[in-house]
Design brief:
The protein has about 475 residues and is mainly α. The protein has helices at about 1-40, 40-55, 60-70, 75-90, 95-105, 110-125, 130-140, 145-155, 160-165, 165-175, 180-195, 200-215, 220-235, 235-250, 255-265, 270-285, 290-300, 305-320, 325-335, 340-350, 355-370, 375-390, 395-405, 410-420, 425-440, 445-455, 460-470. Helix 8 packs antiparallel against helix 10, helix 21 (about 355-370) packs parallel to helix 23 (about 395-405) and helix 25 packs parallel to helix 27 (about 460-470).
Length: about 475
């Protein structure tokens, strides 16, 4: 009996010694992948998680990590495939519900996303990411009370996971309270403005300024319109509709409020009603610029450039020195394929706003994106953009690309390296630098930059360009 016990003990120890390196390798790979994700090196992370999955093909963990990685890249088909394997290996879990919800939201299936997040919270009430996602989903759908409850629940807990979500929760509460409790809204927006996410901080500042303006207005309808316009500027479309509809109901002839209402309705997917409101605003105020400008934007989004051109030209008769109108007219003419007219409009915008780099960059993009007069006009325009703002990464990116297209490789590389140094997450600069390095036969450096473009581009254009340059199939 004692011999049998010693035999089994020996077998157990031998198996344990054999499995320990495999376990350590697996854990090391998961940690390595997580580190890559933290630095937004998603392609490297995916590669490492796949290695972990080969060690433990029956585990849901590496596939959950893969799904999360693809979601960060807005690559929903790949995320779905990875999450389905995670489900097959480990069944439904709250974490899987969180990621499935994020996938459905990205695919435009918000009702399914809400079902997943609500189920995740029912089983794991402290899963703060799911609660935050749910709060924003409730806000978008006009479920104000449920959204407030979600954000307040996040602020009621002090652990690290909840604290990381505080800025977003404060901003959400600032939005929700703005129509009914201005002081409470400003309190939350001021906190959000001091948070670590710069984009969220900027939105909080813009909305806070709008709330302040509405407070200072002695006219209740005008105050509603000011608040609605601030919501439009931060793309809080459902709240914009709420406040602007109230303003229009109180004063039906209020053309500006009606135009903004139509603009918000369009973004909420109510295109026909949006157009109706915009046309009514134009009829109410035929000598005002804003209704025609927003109606032109509506037609531009609908793929009707001829109608957009008409509205922008009518608006320019009313405001002939408005650079924004010339910029939109240039884009509409581009959509019509009228490159000569588009160039004139973009150049007019840049000249009218001679000290504003954004209009100059529009002109540069026109030349370099369409390979039109790059050396004679695009390169000088790019140099001017850099002179206007020597701290602008996009300006150096376009300058470098203009140099490259003009055959000046040393200058191109120098400008693009400055762009990457200024903004390491600028996907276009990474792609452009990779293309220049590839042209200079420095393939190792080029591949690194091209993979960073794949990782960082959330729109798909530079990702697909970089993948082509890497010799990979483009999905």
């Amino acid at each position: 009996m004692r011999c049998r016990f010693l035999f089994f003990l020996l077998v157990f120890l031998v198996l344990g010694s054999l499995l320990r390196p495999e376990r350590e390798a697996y854990v090391s790979l998961i940690r390595e992948g997580d580190a890559h994700v933290a630095f937004k090196e998603y392609s490297f992370a995916a590669r490492v998680y796949r290695q972990a999955a080969t060690l433990r093909p029956g585990s849901p963990t590496p596939f959950l990590r893969l799904g999360r990685t693809f979601l960060a890249q807005v690559w929903y088909d790949r995320a779905q495939a990875a999450l389905l394997v995670a489900y097959r290996n480990g069944g439904w879990t709250p974490e899987l519900g969180l990621r499935m919800g994020q996938m459905y939201q990205g695919m435009g299936l918000e009702a399914k996303a809400i079902d997943q997040w609500e189920s995740a919270l029912a089983e794991s009430p402290h899963l703060v990411e799911a609660r935050l996602e749910l709060g924003w989903a409730y806000l978008r759908r006009g479920a104000w009370h449920d959204a407030i409850m979600s954000f307040e629940a996040i602020l009621s807990r002090w652990d690290d996971a909840h604290r990381r979500c505080w800025q977003s929760a404060h901003y959400g509460l600032g939005l929700l309270l703005a129509p009914q409790d201005s002081e409470g809204a400003l309190h939350h927006l001021q906190i959000a403005a001091g948070g670590s996410d710069p984009e969220l901080a900027d939105r909080a500042i813009v909305l806070g300024a709008g709330v302040q303006q509405s407070i200072s207005s002695s006219d209740a309808t005008h105050a509603l319109a000011l608040l609605g316009q601030a919501c439009v500027r931060v793309e809080a479309w459902s709240l914009a509709r709420l406040t602007l509809a109230q303003a229009v109901a109180a004063e039906p002839a209020y053309a500006e409020a009606r135009a903004y209402l139509g603009h918000a309705l369009d973004y909420l997917g109510e295109a026909a009603e949006g157009e109706r409101q915009l046309l009514q605003a134009v009829r109410l105020a035929p000598t005002e610029t804003l209704p025609r400008y927003l109606l032109g934007l509506y037609y531009q989004r609908r793929g009707q450039p001829r109608e957009a051109v008409f509205q922008f030209r009518q608006a320019l008769k009313l405001a002939p020195y408005d650079a924004s109108l010339y910029a939109e007219l240039g884009q509409a003419w581009l959509d019509e394929g009228k490159y000569g007219d588009a160039e004139i409009a973009f150049r007019a915008a840049a000249e009218l706003a001679a000290e504003e780099v954004d209009f100059q960059l529009l002109l540069v993009r026109f030349y370099v994106d369409r390979l039109i007069k790059v050396q004679t006009d695009g390169l000088p325009s790019a140099r001017k953009a850099v002179d206007l703002d020597p701290t602008n990464a996009c300006a150096f990116d376009l300058l470098g690309w203009a140099y490259y297209l003009s055959g000046f490789l040393d200058e191109a590389e120098s400008a693009l390296r400055r762009a990457v140094a200024m903004d390491p997450e600028l996907a276009s600069a990474r792609y452009h630098l990779g293309a220049v390095l590839l042209n200079r036969a420095r393939s190792v450096e080029a591949i690194e930059q091209l993979w960073r473009a794949v990782d960082l581009d959330r729109t798909g254009y530079y990702r697909s360009q970089a993948m082509q340059a890497l010799g990979l199939p483009v999905e």
